[in-house]
């Protein structure tokens, strides 16, 4: 059942090329240059879009909302548990998208029900056929990741990212051929990352660190949050993810030579340049820097270690960079002898609010 892997988590990390292909299968028509999601055809929507989700799925929701905003759509992600107390305005013109792997997370179901009561259209983006979210929402988009046994979400996060990228083409601008090809190529690039990664060596170097920090901008900001969440969950070590620009507004005080900073930097545009500026601030305080990068900028000059990914657009790069961070967390937990598939105090699906 674990197919020779020591843990389900490692197996599921390695399943990503095939689970991502499954997510895309039949949904990209390269001849026509279109995205084909018949399950969403009935949604005729040009109002605001609100994502509600928890934990890892919230990080995917942040990514999805940003992707939609690049098409000019008014889209925002909310923590499902805060949705009600945030008093988010919602009415008949709103599309509320619940991102939930299990389809059973109580906080997310509650937020979707509130949205439904306010007259919103609801959409479940889920992995689980006939789950509560799938049954209760007006529409459902399946991420088709296959069963995930490890409590820490890995392959389902990547499939949420791709499913939300597809969703953006359905609800936002039509795709260009280049964008479709870029999506199609992601599963193969994940395979390349799995075959070439140095994550284990990086984990060995930093297994005794005091804490682990993760920074990124744009699509890499949710990846920084997710990298830290994975690290916390399975290693029980202190880890935090920050928007790279926020470092200087407080977290920099935590940085020492015993706190590695993982920085996701891809491309060589404005976003990369700014994050490199933050990396230099960290380096000046003697913190070890691990750059997750495609090698197109000079960030490696300021980094102690590099985890390389193929050079692709930032959206695809966020999927690839996340795989590297999944592996770093896995190997740190493995070296510490943690209960990786069933971390203490955590359950796979959280059915209380
Ligand atoms: C982290 C993790 C949790 C879930 C969260 C939401 O690895 O698995 O943070 O992402 O409990 O679960 P779903 O997606 O089932 O709603």
TrEMBL record:
Alphabetized GO MF terms: carbohydrate derivative binding; glutamine-fructose-6-phosphate transaminase (isomerizing) activity
Enzyme Commission number, as recorded: 2.6.1.16
Annotated catalysed reactions: D-fructose 6-phosphate + L-glutamine = D-glucosamine 6-phosphate + L-glutamate
Active-site residue numbers: 348 (for fru-6p isomerization activity)
Domain SIS: 39-177, 202-343
Main subcellular localisation: cytoplasm
Transferase keyword on record: yes
Highest taxon above the source species: Archaea
Cellular component annotations (GO), alphabetically ordered: cytoplasm
Compartment(s) of residence: Cytoplasm
Record keywords, A-Z: Aminotransferase, Cytoplasm, Glutamine amidotransferase, Repeat, Transferase
GO biological process, one term: fructose 6-phosphate metabolic process
Its biological purpose: Catalyzes the first step in hexosamine metabolism, converting fructose-6P into glucosamine-6P using glutamine as a nitrogen source.
Quaternary organization: Homodimer.
Protein name per the record: Glutamine--fructose-6-phosphate aminotransferase [isomerizing]
Lineage, highest ranks first: Archaea, Methanobacteriati, Methanobacteriota, Stenosarchaea group, Halobacteria
Gene name in the database record: glmS
